[in-house]
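> call design_seq(struct)
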């Protein structure tokens, strides 16, 4: 039987800051807002973990989002995400500094990194969380995630092991309002990873996903469902998205039918999004889809069925044939868009 760890030696809340081409990805900043709440409730510090090459300048964004500290690991070998390199670096950080809680975005990279770290450290990991809190009787983090296909919500505690770890879906939480007057402590940690430690080599980057399917970062999303009737009609969705400078989404039914690739899917088994404006076009409003987009600031529904469940969650609704309504919307937005620019 493994010896019990001294949990009192583990302190502070860490957030992994995923880095994109233009700086910190939204999910890391979103998690700093929630991490701040957890850290305050636990009476501990909040830290961001930044790994990469020439990324020290991102610390100001992390402090502005609520962090007290930044753990910074920079090396040429870490310029791009790699399973071997980032897992080794993060594992070393945990062993050295012993955080109590680690939050990681449930992105492609985060879903790869989180479980590997947890396995090496010997702790648990709650995947794809949609809620965070503190369990009052124990003081532990309460990780909430969908179970049984989204029909139930399970709350999970990690009682015996440290750190408490979880991946959290992007866009579940809103980004905190940045306060650029905040500063903090930057802890420079040297990387021990060598080029030969990384078994994969980056040969080239081929962009198969343009801005039209960058759902997690989009401020406007136009999504289509079964009501679009056939894949050719998605050109109407794409047209409105282009006019508005938004991204193209799809319901599970549309993706399962092969009308759009899985990278466009919004919902419980797709991507969780939280844009400023979400157009639900020909989408009835199944609970699995609502779970993926209900945090949108404004929801606009278009459906010929006046009793469709989507209208109960929509801020604005248009009852009509989506194939007739979409061209009219695109035409009207084209008229007013130049005036707004």
């Amino acid at each position: 039987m493994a010896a019990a760890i001294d949990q009192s030696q583990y302190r502070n809340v860490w957030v992994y800051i995923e880095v994109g081409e233009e700086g910190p990805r939204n999910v890391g900043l979103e998690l700093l807002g929630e991490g701040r709440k957890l850290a305050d409730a636990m009476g501990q510090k909040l830290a961001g973990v930044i790994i990469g090459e020439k990324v020290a300048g991102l610390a100001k964004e992390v402090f502005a989002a609520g962090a007290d500290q930044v753990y910074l690991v920079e090396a040429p070998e870490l310029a791009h995400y790699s399973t071997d390199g980032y897992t080794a670096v993060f594992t070393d950080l945990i062993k050295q500094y012993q955080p109590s809680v680690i939050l990681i975005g449930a992105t492609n990279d985060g879903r790869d990194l989180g479980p590997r770290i947890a396995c090496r450290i010997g702790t648990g990991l709650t995947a794809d969380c949609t809620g965070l809190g503190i369990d009052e009787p124990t003081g532990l983090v309460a990780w909430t995630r969908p179970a049984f296909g989204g029909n139930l919500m399970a709350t999970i505690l990690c009682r015996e092991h440290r750190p408490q770890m979880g991946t959290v879906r992007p866009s579940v939480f809103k980004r905190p309002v940045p306060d650029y007057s905040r500063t903090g402590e930057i802890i420079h940690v040297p990387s021990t990873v060598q080029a030969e430690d990384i078994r994969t080599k980056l040969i080239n980057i081929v962009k198969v996903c343009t801005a039209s399917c960058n759902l997690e970062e989009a401020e406007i999303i136009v999504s289509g469902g079964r009501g679009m009737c056939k894949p050719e009609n998605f050109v109407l969705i794409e047209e409105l998205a282009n006019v508005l400078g938004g991204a193209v989404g799809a319901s599970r039914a549309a993706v399962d039918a092969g009308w759009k690739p899985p990278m466009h899917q919004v919902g419980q088994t797709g991507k969780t999004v939280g844009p400023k404006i979400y157009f639900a076009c020909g989408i009835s409003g199944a609970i699995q889809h609502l779970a993926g987009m209900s945090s949108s600031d404004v929801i606009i529904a278009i459906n010929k069925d006046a009793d469709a469940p989507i209208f109960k969650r929509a801020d604005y609704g248009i009852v009509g044939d989506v194939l007739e309504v979409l061209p009219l919307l695109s035409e009207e937005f084209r008229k007013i868009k130049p005036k707004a620019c």
